[in-house]
Amino acid sequence: MDVFEAVTKRRSIHDFKQEPVDSGILKEIFAAAAWAPTHRMIEPWEIEVIQKEAASSFADLIIDSYLRMGYAEGYEEKKKCKLMEGIKQHILSIPHHALIYMEKDKDLRLYEEDYAAVCAFIQNVQLLAWRYGVGVLWTSNPYIYDAGFASSWGIDPKKHKIVAVLQMGYPNKIPEPKNRTPITNKLKFMNNPIK
Ligand SMILES: Cc1cc2nc3c(=O)[nH]c(=O)nc-3n(C[C@H](O)[C@H](O)[C@H](O)COP(=O)(O)O)c2cc1C
C-alpha cells in the first residue's frame, strides 16, 4: 500500500471484530509510528494498550468520570444504569484501547511542539494500522480531560496530558468516506509581494 492510498483510503472505524490484533503487530505499528517528526527529539508519546481483563476497570473509571461530570443527571436510576451498562458493553466490545499521553511542558511553545508531535505519531499509527488491515478510531471523549479520571488511572494530571484514546481492532464495517472540501477553497499560492 503506498502512502497516497493509505492517506486517502483510511477510514475511522466504529465497528470492530472481537478477534484481537497480535501484540507483535501492534508493536510494529507503534514502533514505526515513532518515526514521527519530533522537535528536540523529545519523542513525547507514551502509550498504554488497555485490553483483556484491564478493559473492565478502564470502563468503570470512564463511567465514574461521566457520572462525576453529570452526564447522567436528570435520568431516573434505572435509565442511568442502562445507559452506563451500554457504555461499558461498548467499551468491552473493542479489542484494544491505546491511551496516548505526554508530559506537559510549562512553556507554551514547547508544549505545542510536543502536542503536535504526538498528533503526528497518532496519524502515523492510523496509517500504519490501515496497512496491516487494522482499524482505528481516534477518540477525544470528555473523560480524557477529567483530572479525576487521569489520577484514578494512575496518570498525574498536573504532569501529563492525555492526548487521545485510540480504539483498535480489525474492522467489522468500513464506513463510506466523508467527502472533503475541494482544496482549491482553502489553498492559495502567494506569488506576489504583499502590498
Ligand atoms: C483530534 C481528533 C479527535 C477525534 N475524536 C473523535 C471522537 O471522540 N469520536 C469519534 O467518533 N471520532 C473522533 N475523531 C474522528 C473523526 O470523527 C473522523 O476523522 C472524521 O469523522 C472523518 O472520518 P475519516 O477519519 O473516516 O475520514 C477524531 C478525530 C480527531 C483528529
From TrEMBL:
UniProt entry keywords in alphabetical sequence: Flavoprotein, FMN, NAD, NADP, Oxidoreductase
Pfam families: Nitroreductase (PF00881)
Cofactor(s) it depends on: FMN
Annotated coiled-coil segments of the chain: none
Single GO molecular function: oxidoreductase activity
Residues covered by the Nitroreductase domain: 8-170
Family of the protein in this entry: Belongs to the nitroreductase family.
Protein name according to UniProt: Nitroreductase
Organism, as annotated: Thalassobacillus cyri
